[in-house]
Design brief:
The chain has one domain. An eight-stranded mixed sheet has the order 2-3-4-1-5-8-7-6. The longest helix has 12 residues. By secondary structure, it is of the alpha+beta class. Helix content is 29%, strand content 16%. It is built from nine helices and eight strands.
């Protein structure tokens, strides 16, 4: 008789949260077959931005996107484009000023990475350890000091032959949660919330540090290694300079 296959256990980020005094929510992006385990759920109203649910995340709620109810950002996650290509280029270039001209905007759109849903239900909200098998990325909302320490942690196990451990790439706020990575199957982190159109939903000090599931596992492992930079004099010196805590005042 074959042994029963047990789902992988979610790594524990509690040491990272406590050591860095994280007060922002830790948010998971899930691609799951059933939204029920993520309740309480909220759904976007019309073309509502993904980040309009930020306060819901802080209250323990999860944003549920489907092809039928995808909001604004969820449209590109499901391949739904309410505008024609020409209209999209005009909006992004002429109205929002994201590229110097239409040719450059078209070049970026041609090369922009996209997310392909696996199971039909995309969910953004608090971590659900019992749903770890469906987790795609994890986002820490951090200040500059916390970002610096986490960026060092993301490099701790990296090899020159691997993709860059930390990147910062152009894209919408929701793309920076989902699709700007070289691959969701490799350990990589991105510095996000750089789309200033979504920053009104965040605290001014908040920067997103989004990691793939393999990088999340690496960071949790890094946090448990007493030789790592998290437990070094470098971090201790920073903590002393900030009065004993990296918590945003």
């Amino acid at each position: 008789m074959e042994p029963e296959m047990r789902p992988a256990l979610q790594p524990d980020p509690s040491t990272i949260i406590s050591k860095l005094s994280l007060t922002g929510p830790v948010i998971g992006f899930y691609d799951a077959p059933d939204p029920a385990p993520f309740a309480p759920l909220v759904v976007p109203q019309g073309r509502q931005c993904v980040f309009a649910s930020f306060r819901d995340w802080q209250e323990g709620k999860t944003l549920h996107l489907t092809r039928e109810k995808h909001g604004c950002g969820g449209g590109h996650l499901f391949g739904v484009q309410p505008r024609s290509r020409e209209e999209m280029v005009a909006f992004l270039c002429d109205k929002e000023g994201l590229r110097a001209n239409h040719d450059l905007m078209n070049l970026w759109l041609d090369s922009a990475p996209s997310y392909r849903p696996i199971r039909g239900h995309l969910l953004f909200g608090p971590l659900r350890p019992d749903q770890y098998e469906f987790l795609r990325t994890v986002t820490f909302y951090v200040n500059a000091d916390q970002l610096a320490v986490l960026s060092m942690g993301a490099s701790y196990y990296s090899r020159p032959s691997e993709p860059e451990p930390v990147v910062a790439r152009f894209g919408s706020g929701c793309m920076q949660l989902t699709s700007v990575f070289d691959s969701l199957e490799v350990p990589q982190a991105t510095i996000g919330s750089l789309d200033h159109s979504i920053r009104r939903f965040l605290e001014p000090w908040m920067i997103a540090f989004t990691v793939t599931r393999p990088m999340f596992a690496r960071l949790c492992q890094w946090s448990q290694d007493p030789r790592s930079s998290l437990h070094s004099e470098f971090t201790a010196t920073l903590l002393r300079a900030r009065g004993g805590s990296l918590k945003s005042k």
